[in-house]
Amino acid sequence: MSTETEGPLVLDETAAQRARRVDALAGRAATLIEALPWMQRFHGRTVVVKYGGHAMADRELREVFAQNIVFLRYAGIRVVVVHGGGPQINAHLDRLGVRSHFTAGLRVTTPETMDVVRMVLVGQVNRDVVGLVNQYGPFAVGMSGEDAHLFTAERKHALVDGEPVDIGMVGEVVRVETGAVRSLLDDGRIPVIASVARGADGGVYNVNADTAAAALAAALDAAKLIVLTDVEGLFADWPDTDDLISRLTAAELEDLLPSLSAGMVPKMEACLRAVRGGVPQAHVLDGRVPHSMLLEVFTDEGVGTMVVPDPDPDPDVHPAPLGSGHTPREGAR
């Protein structure tokens, strides 16, 4: 076959440029190969992702989140997304002239406020997340914790100076019915779940998205719970950010809980609840870092902080000290 050209043949690159390009492509191939054992390990397994924080507010990070979720789906992982929407709720209440009140870090939720919470989480945020994910693959299906009795909650009280304080329509998930979620996963879908729940008393409750995701992960026998946050992970001496704890056991986390900042407590409690409920790994990742989920799932070292079950008692095994750095975590995965 001949090719007609006008004028002399123009080469696009020199041999040296071509060699550099091939080397760069080989590096990309090496990255894909590094992911292979993790793709094999997690193919067909369930991963529950709690979505919130800056990753939900920043436009570019929202796009990256949706791409990552669909990537996990195409990699054969059964993905479930649980979301909150605190900033969106606050904004809507402000527009209505309703002040937000918090006690012990929990929103005081009157019946009128609960109507707004339900409307924003189910009618606005859930639809936004579903639409975002479906731009990259037609898999996301929206639902709330009320649907098919997915979450049943009991009224939760805040503790102030050791005394219980009524904070209204705020609930704690006490039962999870996974049938509808499993059916969606079996059909290749990505359930996207708003964190509201039906109470046994017939009321509707605002439930913390972190703890709801943990309860769902345990009920689904998930391989991982991933909680996206606005920090790199758990630090040994916050606010000093030099010593990130890359891995710790449930017992070690339980010892640390009383000393944690208020914002980290529900996230780390969720990790503890998931691991104590049978989930092999729970992760706190920085949602501000693009592709942090993929870095955790598909690389040898991972990112963020990983919580694992307590080891079987063995006098010959000495656990590594907290904050020992990001060492390869294959043995723990």
UniProtKB/TrEMBL annotation:
Residues 46-286 form the Aspartate/glutamate/uridylate kinase domain. Keywords: Amino-acid biosynthesis, Arginine biosynthesis, ATP-binding, Cytoplasm, Kinase, Nucleotide-binding, Transferase. One of its GO terms (molecular function) is acetylglutamate kinase activity. Signal peptide: none annotated. Residues 306-333 are annotated as: Disordered. Substrate binds at G85, G86, R107, N206. Pathway: Amino-acid biosynthesis; L-arginine biosynthesis; N(2)-acetyl-L-ornithine from L-glutamate: step 2/4. GO terms for cellular component: cytoplasm. It is found in: Cytoplasm. The record marks K50, K267 as: Transition state stabilizer. Its EC number is 2.7.2.8. It catalyses: N-acetyl-L-glutamate + ATP = N-acetyl-L-glutamyl 5-phosphate + ADP. GO terms for biological process: L-arginine biosynthetic process via ornithine. Catalyzes the ATP-dependent phosphorylation of N-acetyl-L-glutamate. Belongs to the acetylglutamate kinase family. ArgB subfamily. HAMAP family: ArgB. This is Acetylglutamate kinase. It comes from Allonocardiopsis opalescens. The gene is argB.
